Amino acid sequence: MTEPNIARARDLEEGAILHLDFTKLVKVAQTGADVLPVVVQDADSLEVLILAYANEIALQKTIETGIASFWSTSRNRLWVKGETSGDTLEVVDIRVNCEQNSLLFLVRPQGEGACHTKGCDGKARRSCYYRSLRNGQLQPIELR
Amino acid sequence: MTEPNIARARDLEEGAILHLDFTKLVKVAQTGADVLPVVVQDADSLEVLILAYANEIALQKTIETGIASFWSTSRNRLWVKGETSGDTLEVVDIRVNCEQNSLLFLVRPQGEGACHTKGCDGKARRSCYYRSLRNGQLQPIELR
């Protein structure tokens, strides 16, 4: 029997039905973690890979190690991307926006892909943005 | 005499001193707006232009008009990007991430630039990410 939350994750991740979680930021704030959004972009292909969150600890860790580290807003702890999967992201550059309230990491992926989901080939998808919203439905796109 | 908040905005936007606002998301949540982060990327150059926030109203407006609309988290109202400056962003594609808690807009800028700040040429900067964090300082970068 499938666990309800596993079934739900599969629907969200692989389904065609749009079910956006507009409460995400409120839930992030409720954890009490002072985090900023971090856009993660491939330094070579310029593909946007993931959006994650960082606090001062995660940013400092990223600067010290050169490996993208975030603050896990679901587990409320430091999250070195790829620490279990091996799919680490080498950080080439850190950019700061005009108002200094978001970050952009330019990275070189060291493993299979940046997304925790897997494509048809059984490998981690390169980017989390593998679906396009068309006529109210989610359609898979070919990642470059 | 310069207003303190104007002086502060200039320091944040044009200065070399890193002064990240890690309380941004908590402040967004406090407005009570159910918003998601939206990464905005140039569909042709693939440059990341801005990070903004959208609620259901802003997403619906974007879909209906084909022009990027967000929810202004400072003014707590619908914000059609470029409504005053003319620097609108035509939306070519809307991508949704694996967990359906962030969006990626692929856009074609119709005006000067996506950032509200101006570069040395007096024109709106193309992207908000015009500074790189190096040795603890912010350094201007050449936007492609």
Task: Please state the structural category of chain A.
Answer: alpha+beta
Note the run of SSEs of chain A as H and E: HHEEHEEEEEE
| Low-confidence sequence ranges of chain A | none
> Count of DSSP helices of chain A?
3
- Radius of gyration of CA atoms of chain A, rounded to a whole number: 16 Å
Mass-distribution shape of chain A: globular
Q: Which sequence of strands runs across the widest sheet of chain A?
A: 2-1-6-5
Oligomerization state of this entry? homodimer
How many runs of DSSP E, i.e. beta strands of chain A?
8
Q: How does the major sheet of chain A shape up? A: 4 strands, mixed
Write the layout of secondary structure elements.
Two copies of one chain form a homodimer.
Chain A: H1 4-14, H2 24-30, E1 36-42, E2 48-54, H3 56-65, E3 69-72, E4 77-80, E5 89-96, E6 103-109, E7 131-134, E8 137-140
Parallel strand pairs in A: 1-6
Antiparallel strand pairs in A: 1-2, 3-4, 5-6, 7-8
Structure description:
The structure is a homodimer of 144-residue chains. With 144 residues, chain A is of the alpha+beta class. Chain A is built from three helices and eight strands. In chain A, the strands form three sheets. In chain A, strands 2-1-6-5 form a four-stranded mixed beta sheet, covered by helices on one side. A two-stranded antiparallel ribbon of chain A has the order 3-4. A two-stranded antiparallel ribbon of chain A has the order 7-8. The mean pLDDT of chain A is 92. The interface between A and B is large, with 55 and 56 residues. Strand 5 (89-96) of chain A pairs antiparallel with strand 7 of chain B, so a sheet runs across the interface.
